[in-house]
Each structure stands twice: as C-alpha cells, then as structure tokens.
Amino acid sequence: MEILWLTAHPEPASLTGHLSREGARAARALGHIVTESDLYAMGWDPVVTAADYPDHTGRLIVADASHEALASGRIAPEVRAEQEKLLRADALVVQFPLWWYGPPAILKGWFDRVLVKGLGYGTGERYGAGALAGKRALTVVTAGARGTSMAPRGIHGSLSQILWPLLHGTYFYTGMSALEPLLIPSADRADEHQAAEAAQRLASRLATLFTEDPLPYRTETGGDYDDDLVLRPHVAPGEVGLEAHEAASRG
C-alpha cells in the first residue's frame, strides 16, 4: 500500500521530526511505499492566490477558478504535484504540533491549495463519499500539554473534538476514513526514552493502519439527516454536541 506522509514542523530535530523519520521507516518495514511531503523543508507556500490558476481572468472566485484549472490541467505545478501524491496514496498520515488548537498555518494552507473544487469538494458527494473515498487518514499530533488535560473532562477538551475541522470537516467531508488521532503529549519535555516510547506507539498504529475501525461519523446519505442536513428527531435524541454526529457504535 502507498502512504503520503505529510509533516509540518519548522525544526527537524523536534520530536515531530524524529517521529516522522521513525514512522516512515516503520511503515516501509511493513512493506508500504511512503512518499513524504515535509512542508517546511519544501518551502511550501500556504497562501491561495490567483497564480494558482494561470488561466483565470477577472474577479477571483476561488472555487470556480480552481475547478476550471483542475479540469484543464492548468493548476499551479507545485499544487498538481501534491494532488498527484494524494491521489496515488491509499492512506494519508498527517503529522504536526498542535498550535492554538489547530495545525500550523503552513499545513492548513496545504489543504487550502491542494483540495480544490473537483477534487476535495464540489463533486456532488461528501461526508463519507467523494473523490477521496477509500483512503484512510491518520493524524499524529505532538502537544506540550499533558495527556490527562486533553480528554473529555480535561481543560483542553478531547483531541477528536479539538480536531473536528480536520477529522470531520476535511477528511470525512472529502470521503476519507478518519482514524482516531494519535496524541503524543508533553512533547517539549520528552527525553530519549519517552521519544522511543512515542515512536513505538506510532509504529503500533501503523501496523493497524489499514485494518482498524475509523471514527464512526454519520454519512450524509445514510438516512440520519433530513433534507436540510439536520439530524432527524429520532437520531441521538437530546444530543446537540459533536458526538451526536457519531454513530452509537462509538459508545
């Protein structure tokens, strides 16, 4: 199987950098093909501009311009290169430090530029279906916070809720199966032994990358939502939080 390993950290000697190298090595040892995109090392430009769509004229409506550029094969070459990596991959591993409850801007900009209309959205299918259906996505997050504080009753909240825009609004929206994210807490205080333990945790998750059950988000077309895309009254009655959009099998 082929994996696209997407990393966003400015310091190669960081725990994120160490885990990226060790994880890719472990994945290859399992027999997988690993293609890497280290965004800081690549000097990736995260900003969407009209230059992404060379044939565009007039007012820039990003969705329409990106769709036209994708269809004509005239999208910016660095964007097309990343799209080709993603389309070839059976799984996406996204690795980053948690900054202000989200990924670094350079990573957000990768999704902004790469998942254009016609590839990431606008295909008529979404939330469990779409152009990227069949692919799996594992998120590996390093955080300075203690693990106990990033839980349902912890002050920071649970990681799956913190990352809702990425897990549900990006992966699942485009058809990918979002896996439970892997949290590496207290990252800035990790010693050599703890770094080795974190690498082993990552290797264990990679061993089940293609077999573990994804997060059980409700699909748009599965019957749980009405024509206004609101949960039907009998589905998760009384629940109004993000958990209501997960099937009961998650507990």
TrEMBL record:
Record keywords: Oxidoreductase
Superkingdom assignment: Bacteria
Keyword set includes Oxidoreductase: yes
Transmembrane regions: none
Coiled coil spans: none
Residue span, Flavodoxin-like fold domain: 1-205
UniProt xrefs under InterPro entries: Flavodoxin_fold, Flavoprotein-like_sf, NAD(P)H_dehydrogenase_qn
SUPFAM superfamilies associated with the record: Flavoproteins
Family of the protein in this entry: Belongs to the NAD(P)H dehydrogenase (quinone) family.
Protein known as: NAD(P)H-dependent oxidoreductase
Organism: Streptomyces zhihengii
